[in-house]
Every structure is written in structure tokens, then in C-alpha cells.
Amino acid sequence: xxxxxxxxxxxxxxxxxxxxxxxxxxxxxxxxGTGGEGLLVLVSxxxxxxxxxVGQGPWTISRVGQLRGEDGSxxxxxxxxxxxxxxxxxRIRPWLxxxxxxxxxxxxxxxxxxxxxxxxxxxxxxxAVALSVLSMHPDGLLKAVLRVAESTKVHxxxxxxxxxxxxxxxxxxxxxxxxxxxxxxxxxxxxxxxxLVGRKTKIRHPIEGPLLDVLVGPELDPEHAxxxxxxxxxxxxxPPVDTAVISPAGFDRTAGAGVARLETTAADGSFRITGAGxxxxxxxxxxxTENHIAALxxxxxxEVIADHAGDHVxxxxxxxxxxxxxxxxxxxxxxxxVADALGGELAxxxxxxxxxxxxxxxxxxxWSITTxxxxxxRFAPQNFWAAQGHRLGKPxxxxxxxxxxxxxxxxxxxxxxLAQLARQDWPELETVLVLHGITRATPGVxxxxxxxxxxxxxxxxxxxxxxxxxxxxxxRRCTGRLITKWDDDDWYGPHHVTDxxxxxxxxxxxxxxxxxxxAYLQSTDVTIRWTNAPSGTRVRWVHGGTIxxxxxxxxxxxxxxxVPRSVDAHLxxxxxxxxxxxxxxxxxxxxxxxxxxxxxxxxxGDQRWLSHxxxxxxGFRPPPQLDPLPHPNLTPSV
Length: 638
Known about the structure:
Layout (H helix, E strand, L loop, with lengths): L1 H17 L19 E6 L3 H8 L4 E5 L14 E6 L2 H7 L8 E9 L20 E7 L5 E12 H9 L14 E3 L5 H4 L6 E2 L7 E2 L3 E2 L3 E3 L11 E3 L28 E5 L6 E5 L5 E4 L6 H7 L4 E5 L6 H14 L3 E2 L5 H7 L1 H9 L8 H19 L1 H12 L9 E7 L5 H9 L6 E8 L8 H6 L5 E6 L5 H9 L6 E5 L4 E2 L3 H12 L3 E3 L3 E5 L4 E5 L6 E3 L8 E3 H6 L10 H11 L4 E3 L5 E5 L12 H4 L4 E4 L20
Parallel strand pairs: 1-2, 1-3, 3-4, 7-8, 7-11, 11-12, 13-16, 16-17, 18-19, 18-21, 19-20, 23-28, 24-29
Antiparallel strand pairs: 4-6, 5-6, 9-10, 13-14, 14-15, 21-27, 22-29, 23-27, 24-25, 25-30, 26-28
Helix pairs in contact: 7-8, 7-10, 8-9, 10-11
């Protein structure tokens, strides 16, 4: 019996290797590399499309699944890997350990909206010369070429291009992953340190011991029994989601009335999407790519027709990706096994979504925001592996610590500001409070501080000190890996910090905040929605009271400038000048207060906003993610 089971698993692994990409007619089999030849690797594309992207050759053609362990020693004049999307390039990157060595690597995604995920490094390891060209074509084709001074492992070149290092973002929470099968590739979720492990792979050092923390996939060698292993064939287990390519970025809050249909009932393990333009097909085990998500953005929702007798792992994988992308999803017939794998709260949201919720744009976006937050908390790679590390008894990097930098001259506003910080659901949060021209002895300050039970550092600065210097002094007392600026008179929802931190990880941006925002204009008693740019996009400006950056990035650009006003504008302009990408999250959890005590642009007043005819409501109408606390400047308090 055990021999039969082992045989079936070997057969399943062979089939999985063959479908690392979508089924295609078999191209020519690879031949021995000679150093004068080029290797063209196909991932989910036809040979004709690949040749059109990289030239006619001469090439030795291979599907990625045809590459074998012995191919890793071959020398090529150049290697080109062509895929349908960046998601697929990132997924098969560990497999390229079988692509040999070359002095030049070309990576192509035939269509993508995630150009920023692919990097063009100017230096690589010990090599003195590295030339990179990254080009984005109008039709969405992305092409990157990296040439180095000497022949190098293709796997290492691909890692440098697909996994640019950014401090504070480690995909697997610091765990070193070994993947023992093609199906295990999804578990790496783009992690640069993950390696493909074969029977001859050296994963143990005579002095250092095991070089991996976790093996994912079938057991290959009983001698590895002391290394923790996740057997993905046991039970219904879902891998993490590669949020560099599957994320809320690009969410369309003005989507049309159509509902797409995603069917997962095909016997061959594929899925089919209809109602979002031309019919789209894909492989459940591979899951969705950024191109599938982009195709679903214009529709109001996607209805998932789950098969109770079908591939539950594939169905769960697609649903976890839709959740992380914030795609409104109707799935009333969710199988219990899939629901358990997704997690109770997330599964309940998918089962209970009322189609009537989708008819109101703000309610639809509100549903998406809460759902994506749950999905990212469970399936974003760093969160996923931090939880796995805790379960397996392995130390991980864990959640990044955050410092909220609050500077105030107004003791009366302090209880309001601290109460909003106290209810933030991000666990690793400290507050650095800069008292600018007031002290602990100022009436009201002592009482406000006494009721605050989260980590707090208080800095006192004289009132004559420029506002920019006061902020900069506070910044240098922050100990968190990330720093976010906090205003003392604006409203923040309880998930504000969590949403910023999640976005900082998945967006790849150095600076995250809110570009468009809701504002309550006290003088005219009107609430408006001020739209500078769509949420979920790269931007050139965010509201100063929502800025979040890593401490390292903020210090490296000089922090806040020694100016009396417009301190945030100076910081943003400096960040742009240094090439720091900016990203805007949704605006449903922040409300800007514009009151009579504001002194800037006094001549314009509320007409600064109203003259542009924004979306508006009479009276105080907070956005749904806010749960507003009483404001000290409003009577009666709202």
C-alpha cells in the first residue's frame, strides 16, 4: 500500500512540474548548452510570442517545466525567460536554478501593470560591470535585460531582478525556505531566499548545520528528518499570496454594473472567467496573476462558482488571492473545507456578501477594505510565515514596530489625539509626543497622559523652535521601524495604522499615505470628499497627517526641514527629489478637520475646496471606516 501511495505522489509531482505553466503544445526539447547558444525558457506563452519579444534566435527552446537538475551546470551565451505576467516570473524563479549560467539574462512579461516589481540593478555581487535596461511598452509588455561581466548563475541574476532588496520587507519573515516540488513554488510567494531542493542539493553545512529552516513539499531524503517540514499534500493547506503582484493596488471604486463569473468546476484543474471582457482561463494550482486581477477591476463583483467535489486547494487559493486584492466576491456555496482554510471571519464575509451592498460605491469599497485587511493579515507572506514560525517554534522577524509622531501646541486637543492612538489595532505601536511650547505641567496635559496606557515617549520643545525642527527632534526619538505622522485635530479610524503598514509592504513604495480624503468644513457645516488621485495608486502627494515611512528612509532624506510651516510639503518634495515612490491607500478611514482655528489660506476659507465642486454632504458625514470620537473643537461634540 505504501508503495502505491508513493507511486501516486511521484506521478502527481511529475504532472505538477509539467504544469508550472498553462498547457501548451510541446516545443523542442532543450539540448546541451555550448556557451555559444542562447536558452529561451517559456512560461505560459507560445514559442511564437516569446520569439517576437526577444528575437528569432538562434535559441534552444525549453518549457520551464522541462528544465532538470542536471541542466544547472550548462553554460549559455544568454538566457531569456518569457512569461505571461510578472506573477508567473516570480513564481518560477526558484526553478531557474536549473537554467544554468550565462552573462546575460532577459526577463519578459508579455503583459503587466506591475512594472515596479521588476528591478534593473546597476551592480551585482562581486561583478564590477553590470548593465541593465528596463523597458515598458505601451501594450503592457515589460522587458528587463541584465548583462554582467562574467558568466553567472541565472538563478542569481533572476533573484536580483525580481526581488530588489528593501529594508524592512522580508517575504518569509526571515525564515529560509526549501521547496521540494513544483507545487511548493507557490509557497515561496516571491521570497528571494527560497531555494529549490533536489536529492543532491546541499542543505547542510558541516559546521553551521542545516541551511534551511523549513522544507515545503514531499519528503525527499530521510536524512532531512530533523528539518521542519510542511507536507502540502496533507489536508487542505493554502499557501501565502504574493502581494507584490496580487494586492489592493488598482482597486476601482467607480466600477460598472457587471458581475463576472469565475467557475472552478473544470475537471482538468483550470478556472474560467466570463463577464469581464473576453473569456479568461487559468490554472487553479497557479492561481491568479496581476492580469486576472486587472481584468476584474472594471466589474462590480465576481461571483465564484465553487465545486464541492472539485479542487478545494485551487479554489481556496483563488479566493485568498481575490480577498488580498480586495475584489468584491460573491461565494454563497463555499465548501466547508475551503472556509476552514480561509479562516472563519474571512469565509463568513465571502458567504454573506449581500449583492445590494454592491450598488452603493462607498458601501462596496467599505466591504472591500475590511475584506482585504483580513486577507492580508492571514495570507500576506510576512504575516503568513510569522504565524507559521510561531506554530513551528521558529523565530521570525514578526510585525514591524511603528512610531506615531504627534506634535502639538494645544493641550485641549491632546485627549482626543491620544484616544485615537490608544484604539489603533496595530499591536506594535509607540507614540512619540512632542509638546511644542507647552509642558507636562500645562493644565490638561498631565490628565491626558495619565489615561494613556500604550508605550509613550514625551519630548518638550520650546515654543520658539521652528515647527520643522520640533518634528525632526521627535523623529529622532522614535524607535519604530516605521514612522507615521499624526495630527492632533483630525479623525483617524481604528485600523488606520494597520492599513498604512500593510500598504507599505505590498506597494513597494517608500512613502505611504492618503492622497484623496474626506474633510469636514466646520464653517459651512459640510463634509466633502476631496479627490486628488485614485486610491491604490502611485501618487506624487499625500496628506501630511497620514505620512508613513521607514525610519531609515526618513532619516536618509533628512527628515523634516527647519521651516515654520508647510513642513509636510517640504518633506514630500525632498522624497520625490530622491526618487522615493509614493502610494496612496483608501480614504475611508481618515477625516480631515478644517475649522475656524486654521490660519493658513484664511482669505480662501472653505472655498478652497468648495469651488472645485467636490462630492459633498450637508452636516457631519464621516466615512464608514472611521467610527469617529468626539472632537474638542465642535459643540455639541460629534
